C-alpha cells in the first residue's frame, strides 16, 4: 500500500537521484490505500453493457443511474464519470459464483479418486513458485516480509498461532511463528458440499481452552470504508461469504448461516470476533452489516443473528469472578456493552460524538471493568485515546503519540487502527496505526504508551517501537497472559516483539506465510527460475533460480519486464515511476527512475514477442500512461516516441503482436490496433467496426494475439467487470464474436472479472484466461471452457503468461504468489 507520501515510500538515497520531467495528467488520484484498492474494485464491478444498449462515443458505456450515491462519485478509471460505470451487483454475488465454481470443479473431477489434499493424483497439478516470504523487505533492518494480515489468534504458550490474511486464507504455525502452513488449500475438495470460504479474511478467533476450534469472519473489514466511500449500488465488501469455523485446527471448514430475519453476511466483511471464555459456542462478530451473535438455532445448528445494525469496527471480551462482559464499538456511534452477547447498552458517559470515525477497543482478558478506545476521526486522522473504568465517564488521555500521521488533515485510521493492553499492567497500552514518518523507510507505527493519572484525568507518554516492522498495522495481540510477547499483523505479514515493555525489537515471523498479493510478473526467456514479480504493499521481488525471493525495489510493485536478448536489462513499475536496471535487478541500488503521467496504479509495460532471430527487437518497449503509449528503442534508457490515442479514458491493456504492431484496450471498452508506418505510429479503432462490432461495453482487462492468423490481425480480448458471462471475445480482422462458451451453465465462463488472457503460441486453439475465480482453459478457441483448479488456491488471478521456451503456464495470484502448470 502506498503511504500518504507520493509516489510511495522511498529511501532518501533513491529520492536524491535525478528523475525525468513529470508530465501532468488531469486524473485526480487518491493516495494511501485508496490509490490501489479502489481502482481494483472498480475494475471488478465495471458494468458490462451490450453495445446496442449503450451510447456510442469515446466515453464508452453510459446507462441509467443506479441507486443514489452517499456522496459525489468519482471514477478512477474513467475520469469525470459517475456511478453509471458500475454494475448493480447483488450482495451474494461472490458466494454464488464460488458455489458455481465448486460445481464446475466437481464435474471436471467426476470419477477421480477422492483426496484430502489440493493436488489430484495422476493429474497435472499447479505447483507453487513463491514467494512464500520475501527477504530484505521494507522496514529498518530489511526484514523478511509476507502479505497483508488482518487478524492473529494466539493459543496459550505462544506456540500455536493462526494468521488470517487479506486474500490468501488462514495460516497456522505450531512453532511460535517460525514457520507457517496454509489451511485453505484443500477445504473445497468435496464439490457436493459447498463449505468453503473465499480467501479474503477479516477476523479470526479461537477457543482459549481448545485452540483447534477456530472461527473466521470472511471479507476484509479494514478496507470497508475505502469501498463504502467509492462504490455505490450496495456492492459487497471484497469477497466475503460470511462466517466459517473449524473444529480440527483448520483441516476442514464449515460455513455457518445467517439466521432468518437477519441481513445475510454474504458479501459483507468482518472486523473482529470475540469468543465467550465460558462458552465457546457464544461468539460475537463486529461486521460491516452490524453486530452479530452466534446462537443455536431451532434445529440445533448454529446460526448468526444481528444484535445491532450499523457498521461495528471492534468487539472484545473480558471475564473475571463469574462476570463476562463484551464491549463493541459502532463506527461513528460509540461503545456498547453486554454480559451475554445478546442484550446491548451504551457504556459510560461522555464518549465523543462529533467527528467520530473508526473505533478500536482494547481490554485485559481478565478485567471486565476497564476498556480503552482508540478513535480516528472521519478523515482517518487521530481523534483521541479514551479510557473507561467501571461505569463512570470516559476520560480522554492527553498527549497521544502521532500514531496516524496526517497530511492535509487526512490519515489512514479507516484502514490501520489497532490497540492492545498489557495483560498484567493496564497502565501499559500499545497503539498501532499506519507508518512512522522517519523520512526514509516509513516503517510500522507501533507505540508503547505509559498511561498515568493526571489530576482528574489521564495522560500518556509514548515511544515508537515498530521500526523493525512493516508499515500499516491491522492487529496487535499478546500471547495469553504474556506481557513480553506482543504480535503485530500488518501489510508486511506477522512480527513478534519479546520485550515490548523494554528494549525489545520486532522480529519477522513470515517464513512460509505465502499470502503476498502478486500483481504482475516477468520471466527469464531461457532460465525459468529467474522471475520478478510486482507485489501490492511490498515492492518488487526477484527469484534467481530457487525458492528464495529477495526484495529489490520499493513502493507498490506493478508490471515487470526482462529483456529477452539481454536479461541484465530489467524494467519494473511502481507508483507512477518506471525503474530500469542493467545488472539484472540484483538489489535496491540497481535502479534508475523515470517518471511518467500516472493514471493507473499498475500501468502496463510490454515488449514484442520472443524472437531470438531478431535480437534488436528485444530493445523495443511500450508503456501505456493515460491516453498515450510511450515507446523506447533502447529498453527504457530513453523514451523519444509517443503515440496518443483519441480516447478520454485510460489504456488498461497493451500487447505487441510484432515489433511494428501492438493492440490496446481501454477502461471504456475501446480497442485499437497501432501500426508503425515509417517513423510514426498510426492507430485504427477496432471495437466499432461496421461488419460486426464488439458486443459489449466495459473495461478491457487484457488482449492476446491469435497466433493462427499469420497476418497478426486477429486477437482475443478479456473483459473485467460484471453483468454478462461473455467475458472473452475474438476479432478475426473483420468482425467480433463472443468466445465465452455456448450459453449453457456447463461450459461457459463465470460472470466475474477476467484479468488476463493468453494463447498457446505452439498450439493456438488452446486459450487460457485468469479470472477473479480460477484459471480456465479452452481447447477449441473459446467455444467451451473448463477450470484448471488442481492445487491452485481460489485467489484472484491478476496475470497469466506462457513461458516462451518451456511448456509452462504461469499465474500470478493476488494473495498466494505465483503458480505454474505444465501444459503438456
How does this structure look, described?
The chain has 824 residues and is mainly beta. The protein has a domain at 93-123 and 132-508: Methylamine Dehydrogenase, Chain H. Helix content is 5%, strand content 38%. The protein has four helices and 59 strands. Strands 20-21-22-23-27-26-25-24 form an eight-stranded mixed beta sheet, with no helix packed on it. A five-stranded mixed beta sheet has the order 3-35-34-33-32, with no helix packed on it. Strands 2-59-58-57 form a four-stranded antiparallel beta sheet, with no helix packed on it. A hairpin with a 5-residue loop joins strand 14 (290-296) and strand 15. The longest helix is centred in the first third of the chain and has 16 residues, at 93-108. The chain starts with 11 loop residues before the first helix and ends with a strand.
Amino acid at each position: 500500500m502506498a503511504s500518504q507520501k507520493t509516489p510511495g515510500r522511498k529511501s532518501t538515497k533513491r529520492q536524491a537521484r535525478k528523475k525525468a520531467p513529470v508530465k501532468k495528467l488531469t486524473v485526480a488520484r487518491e493516495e494511501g490505500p485508496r490509490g490501489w484498492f479502489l481502482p481494483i474494485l472498480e475494475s471488478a464491478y465495471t458494468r458490462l453493457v451490450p453495445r446496442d444498449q449503450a451510447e456510442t462515443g469515446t466515453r464508452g458505456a453510459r446507462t441509467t443511474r443506479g441507486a443514489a450515491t452517499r456522496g459525489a462519485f468519482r471514477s478512477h478509471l474513467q475520469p469525470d464519470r459517475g456511478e453509471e460505470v458500475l454494475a448493480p451487483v447483488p450482495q451474494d454475488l461472490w458466494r454464488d459464483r464460488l458455489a458455481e465454481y465448486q460445481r464446475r470443479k466437481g464435474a471436471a473431477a467426476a470419477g477421480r479418486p477422492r483426496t484430502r489434499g489440493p493436488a489430484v493424483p495422476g493429474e497435472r497439478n499447479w505447483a507453487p513458485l513463491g514467494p512464500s516470504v520475501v527477504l530484505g523487505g521494507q522496514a529498518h533492518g530489511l526484514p523478511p516480509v509476507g502479505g497483508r494480515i488482518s487478524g492473529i489468534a494466539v493459543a496459550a504458550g505462544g506456540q500455536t498461532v493462526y494468521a488470517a490474511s487479506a486474500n490468501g486464507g488462514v495460516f497456522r504455525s505450531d512453532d511460535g511463528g517460525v514457520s507457517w502452513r496454509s489451511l485453505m488449500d484443500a477445504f473445497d475438495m468435496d464439490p457436493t458440499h459447498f463449505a468453503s470460504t473465499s480467501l479474503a479474511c477479516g477476523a479470526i478467533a479461537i477457543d482459549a481452552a481448545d485452540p483447534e476450534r477456530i472461527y473466521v469472519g470472511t471479507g476484509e473489514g479494514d478496507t470497508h470504508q475505502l469501498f463504502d466511500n467509492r462504490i455505490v449500488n450496495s456492492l459487497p465488501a471484497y469477497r466475503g461469504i460470511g462466517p466459517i469455523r473449524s473444529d480440527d485446527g483448520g483441516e476442514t471448514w464449515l460455513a455457518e448461516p445467517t439466521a432468518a430475519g437477519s441481513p445475510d453476511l454474504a458479501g459483507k466483511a468482518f472486523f473482529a470476533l470475540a469468543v465467550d471464555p465460558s462458552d465457546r459456542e457464544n461468539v460475537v462478530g463486529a461486521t460491516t452489516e452490524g453486530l452479530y451473535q452466534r446462537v443455536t438455532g431451532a434445529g440445533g445448528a448454529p446460526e448468526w443473528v444481528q444484535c445491532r445494525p450499523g457498521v461495528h469496527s471492534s468487539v472484545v471480551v473480558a471475564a473475571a469472578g463469574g462476570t463476562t462482559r463484551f464491549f463493541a464499538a459502532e463506527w461513528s456511534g460509540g461503545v456498547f456493552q453486554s454480559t451475554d452477547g445478546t442484550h446491548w447498552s451504551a457504556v459510560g458517559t461522555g464518549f465523543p460524538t462529533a467527528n467520530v470515525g473508526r473505533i478500536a477497543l482494547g481490554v485485559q482478558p481478565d478485567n471486565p471493568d476497564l476498556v480503552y478506545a482508540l478513535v480516528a476521526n472521519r478523515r482517518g486522522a487521530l481523534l483521541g485515546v479514551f479510557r473507561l473504568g467501571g461505569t463512570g465517564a470516559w476520560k480522554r488521555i492527553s498527549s497521544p503519540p502521532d500514531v496516524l500521521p496526517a497530511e492535509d488533515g487526512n490519515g489512514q485510521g479507516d484502514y490501520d487502527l489497532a490497540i492492545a493492553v498489557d495483560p498484567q499492567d493496564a497502565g501499559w497500552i500499545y497503539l498501532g496505526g499506519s507508518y512512522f514518518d522517519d523520512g526514509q523507510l516509513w516503517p510500522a507505527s507501533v507505540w508503547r504508551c505509559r498511561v498515568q493519572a493526571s489530576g482528574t484525568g489521564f495522560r500518556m507518554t509514548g515511544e515508537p517501537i515498530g521500526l523493525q516492522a512493516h508499515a500499516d498495522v491491522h492487529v496487535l495481540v499478546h500471547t495469553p497472559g504474556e506481557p513480553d510477547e506482543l504480535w503485530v499483523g500488518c501489510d508486511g505479514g506477522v512480527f513478534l516483539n519479546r520485550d515490548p515493555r523494554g528494549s525489545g525489537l520486532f522480529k519477522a515471523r513470515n517464513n512460509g506465510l505465502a499470502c503476498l498479493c502478486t500483481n504482475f510478473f516477468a520471466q527469464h526467456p531461457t532460465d525459468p527460475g529467474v522471475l520478478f514479480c510486482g507485489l501490492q504493499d511490498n515492492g518488487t521481488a526477484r527469484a534467481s533460480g530457487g525458492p528464495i525471493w529477495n526484495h529489490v525495489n520499493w513502493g507498490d510493485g506493478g508490471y515487470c519486464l526482462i529483456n529477452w536478448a539481454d536479461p541484465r536489462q530489467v524494467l519494473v513499475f511502481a507508483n507512477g515511476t518506471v525503474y530500469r536496471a542493467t545488472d539484472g535487478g540484483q538489489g535496491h541500488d540497481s535502479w534508475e527512475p523515470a517518471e511518467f503521467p500516472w493514471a493507473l496504479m499498475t500501468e502496463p509495460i510490454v515488449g514484442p514477442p520472443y524472437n531470438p532471430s531478431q535480437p534488436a527487437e528485444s530493445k523495443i518497449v511500450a508503456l501505456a500512461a493515460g491516453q498515450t503509449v510511450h515507446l523506447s528503442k533502447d529498453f527504457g534508457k530513453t523514451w523519444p516516441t509517443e503515440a496518443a490515442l483519441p480516447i478520454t479514458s485510460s489504456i488498461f491493456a497493451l500487447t505487441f503482436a510484432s515489433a511494428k504492431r501492438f493492440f490496446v484496450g481501454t477502461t471504456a471498452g475501446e480497442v485499437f490496433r497501432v501500426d508503425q508506418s515509417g517513423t510514426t505510429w498510426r492507430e485504427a479503432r477496432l471495437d466499432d467496426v461496421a461488419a460486426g462490432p464488439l458486443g459489449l461495453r466495459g473495461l478491457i482487462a487484457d488482449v492476446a494475439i491469435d497466433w493462427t492468423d499469420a497476418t497478426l490481425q486477429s486477437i482475443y480480448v478479456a473483459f473485467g467487470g460484471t453483468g454478462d458471462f461473455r467475458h472473452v471475445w475474438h476479432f478475426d480482422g473483420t468482425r467480433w464474436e463472443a468466445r465465452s462458451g455456448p450459453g449453457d451453465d456447463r461450459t461457459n465462463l463465470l460472470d466475474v472479472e477476467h484479468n488476463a488472457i493468453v494463447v498457446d503460441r505452439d498450439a493456438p486453439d488452446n486459450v487460457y484466461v485468469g479470472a477473479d475465480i480460477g484459471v480456465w482453459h479452452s481447447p477449441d478457441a473459446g467455444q467451451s471452457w473448463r477450470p484448471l483448479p488442481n492445487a491452485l488456491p481460489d485467489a484472484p488471478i491478476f496475470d497469466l503468461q506462457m513461458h516462451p521456451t518451456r511448456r509452462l503456464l504461469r499465474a500470478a495470484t493476488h494473495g498466494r504468489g505465483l503458480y505454474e502448470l505444465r501444459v503438456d
